[in-house]
Amino acid sequence: MNPIIAPSILASDFANLQSEVEMLEKSQADWLHIDIMDGRFVPNISFGFPVMEAIKRHATKPMDVHLMIVEPELYIERFRAAGADTISVHIEACNHLHRTIQQIKATGAKAGVAVNPHTSVQLLDDVIADLDLVCLMSVNPGFGGQKFIENTYRKIEALKNLIEARNSKALIEVDGGVNENNASLLLDKGANVLVAGNFVFSSADPIQTIADLKKSSN
């Protein structure tokens, strides 16, 4: 299976957001990764519904929305209405995780759960069969451009074993510090989706960089 490449809009040039989205539309990117931060769950604020709606006006590719916010259950329906195709909530932010997963699915969106670097994937044992996606944070969430956390490789293997043991169809997404040096090994360990932000948008040729990531499993 070819990897799914999901460039993170957070690293794009917001002054030229339309052209950035149009560039991704022409590239081999599969999804658009949308990071929503509230300044409470993570120490940063990104953007909300108006920017998401603006992106959606120019995007035909699926929007992979990563909610780094407290009380995500209050906003699930609005994010779906704003164009989200997949909605991932943090396990650390949900008091009633199963309920929130079912709430996402009720909107017609795919349901994902994001896991911080310090959180064990074994905590997903009771919900993994209900998930479409697990987003493993390979940096501490909140800021782009951080160094990749090497323990992520072990977590991918543990998560893959859990998915297989529970007969889940969940994809494994890796978010943070993904580049040409680690993409192949991430995929070899079992990752399906690679999120790349600065590596794509700061490159001299983002379209070629995305194409190179797409070939990482070959």
Automatic annotation (TrEMBL):
Its cofactor is a divalent metal cation; Zn(2+); Mn(2+); Co(2+). Binds 1 divalent metal cation per subunit. Its EC number is 5.1.3.1. Coiled coil: none annotated. Substrate binds at S8, H66, G142, F143, G144, G145, D175, G176, G177. Keywords: Carbohydrate metabolism, Isomerase, Metal-binding. The active site is at D35 (proton acceptor), D175 (proton donor). Gene3D superfamilies: Aldolase class I. The keyword Metal-binding applies. One of its GO terms (molecular function) is D-ribulose-phosphate 3-epimerase activity. SUPFAM superfamilies: Ribulose-phoshate binding barrel (SSF51366). Pathway: Carbohydrate degradation. It is an enzyme of class 5 (isomerase). It comes from the Bacteria. A divalent metal cation binds at H33, D35, H66, D175. It catalyses: D-ribulose 5-phosphate = D-xylulose 5-phosphate. Belongs to the ribulose-phosphate 3-epimerase family. NCBIfam families: PRK05581.1-4, rpe. PANTHER family: RIBULOSE-5-PHOSPHATE-3-EPIMERASE. Catalyzes the reversible epimerization of D-ribulose 5-phosphate to D-xylulose 5-phosphate. This is Ribulose-phosphate 3-epimerase. It comes from Pontibacter locisalis. The gene is rpe.
